[in-house]
Design a protein that fits this description.
The chain has a single domain, classed as Growth Hormone, Chain: A, CATH 1.20.1250. The protein is an all-alpha fold. It contains 21 helices and no strands. This is MFS transporter.
């Protein structure tokens, strides 16, 4: 099988395009949960209660991810990366389009939030199998010395998907608030379903990775199962902890902060969306450079440096947010997002290198998806509860963000101490 530089580049590009569309669908839901889903599916007198219910459905998708990651990981280690990736993107597209077509509470009553949660769980199942396969599709096609950089192209789907989501919501919001709340908020979901179909067709053209084919050809290698992870659980726990700031940090910045800025800081919605757009564009540009740098200076050193910076960055960011100046707000948000995205760019390849190919899909999926479920999925909800309890005070929120960064530092140190396979 051809595994030259040209093929490796095509594999990385395919992983980037696929995860961009997958993350687009996921971020569309996250943005909608901050902007409109509470109004449409959980109407009530108290906006805080509506927000909590809306962010609760966001968290529901994360609850499904550890089990989905485990099942898809085992199947991906048995059947191959390509087959699972085509299934996950098809499921995501159908669920996303379903949200766009779902009637609101005013039309079908309690069935609206019930069906919304069900579709959200399908999204969670899809992402549960997506991330690990995309990372491995890119990294396992790459040559030695460039695997971390190649894996970062799967991670690059996060800012690209976020940019697409922000653009579509900006267009939907251009018709005015009343029209947005009435129907234009559905457009990004419907577009996401159509785009996912194109991604499904693209992924069917991919080749299986050489590393998977090599281990599958070894008849002495037992099929992947939870029993095959014996002796690996310490690494899995550390890997899950290491991923925290790269996942929870984004949901803090891109989902919770959007709601917080408009409600508690009284910042115009377009202003905060513009600031997030600028920050996400910078993330898209700088993330490959971060991965290239991390591979050359040493992944452990790079991850510790960026995670440590994330401990301190939320404090000036909140101070700049309080100025209500679009450029200062953009600067504070951009520096924070670029720093945590630098961490995010490197951590995927770092996690993958810690496990042998026969169990790699299962191990990194369990680590990443369990971390996302227990911490990342509840980050906007926890942030909302903190903001409501400490109304007018941003310091507890900054401390919360710092704690997320410290968890990642502990995970990186533990994974480095455990060593690679």
């Amino acid at each position: 099988m051809n595994n030259g530089p040209g093929h490796a580049r095509r594999a990385a590009l395919s992983a980037f395009v696929g995860t961009s569309l997958e993350f687009y669908d996921y971020y569309v839901y996250a943005l909608a949960s901050a902007l409109v889903l509470g109004h449409v599916f959980f109407p009530g007198e108290k906006t805080t209660v509506s927000d909590i219910a809306s962010f609760g459905t966001l968290a529901a998708g994360f609850i499904a991810r550890p089990l989905a990651g485990t099942v898809f990981g085992i199947l991906g280690d048995r059947w191959g990366r390509k087959r699972i990736l085509t299934l996950t993107v098809a499921a995501m597209g159908l669920a996303t389009m379903g949200v766009g077509l779902l009637p609101g509470y005013a039309s079908i009553g309690v069935w609206a939030p019930i069906l919304l949660v069900a579709l959200r769980i399908v999204q969670g199942i899809s992402v549960g199998g997506e991330w690990g396969g995309a990372v491995l599709m890119a990294s396992e096609h790459a040559t030695a010395g460039s695997k971390t950089f190649a894996a970062s192209f799967a991670q690059l789907g996060s800012p690209a998907g976020m940019l697409l989501a922000l653009l579509t919501f900006r267009m939907a919001n251009a018709f005015g608030l009343d029209t947005f709340l009435a129907w234009t908020w559905r457009i990004p979901f419907l577009l996401g379903g159509g785009i996912a179909l194109g991604c499904y067709l693209l992924r069917r053209q991919l080749h299986e990775t050489p590393e998977f084919l090599a281990q599958a050809a070894n008849v002495q290698t037992p099929p992947s199962s939870l029993r095959a992870l014996s002796g690996e659980w310490t690494r899995i726990v550390y890997a899950g902890a290491a991923a925290v700031i790269g996942t929870a940090g984004f949901f803090f910045m891109n989902t919770f902060l959007l709601s917080y800025a408009t409600r508690y800081e009284h910042i115009d919605r377009d202003t905060i969306l513009n600031a997030l757009f600028i920050a996400t564009f910078l993330q898209l540009v700088t993330q490959p450079l971060a991965a290239w740098t991390g591979e050359r200076v040493g992944e452990t050193r790079f991850l510790l440096a960026t995670a440590t910076a994330c401990v301190f960055l939320p404090y000036p960011m909140f101070l700049l947010l309080h100025t209500h100046d679009i450029w200062l707000i953009s600067a504070g948000i951009s520096v924070t997002i670029v720093t945590l995205s630098a961490f995010y760019a490197v951590v995927a390849g770092y996690m993958a290198a810690a496990f042998r190919p026969a169990i790699r899909y299962t191990a990194i999926s369990i680590a990443y998806q369990t971390s996302s479920s227990l911490i990342s999925g509840f980050t906007p909800l926890i942030g909302t509860l903190i903001a409501a309890h400490y109304a007018g005070q941003w310091l507890p929120l900054a401390v919360f963000f710092s704690i997320l960064a410290v968890i990642s530092i502990v995970g990186v140190l533990g994974l480095a101490r455990a060593g690679n396979t």
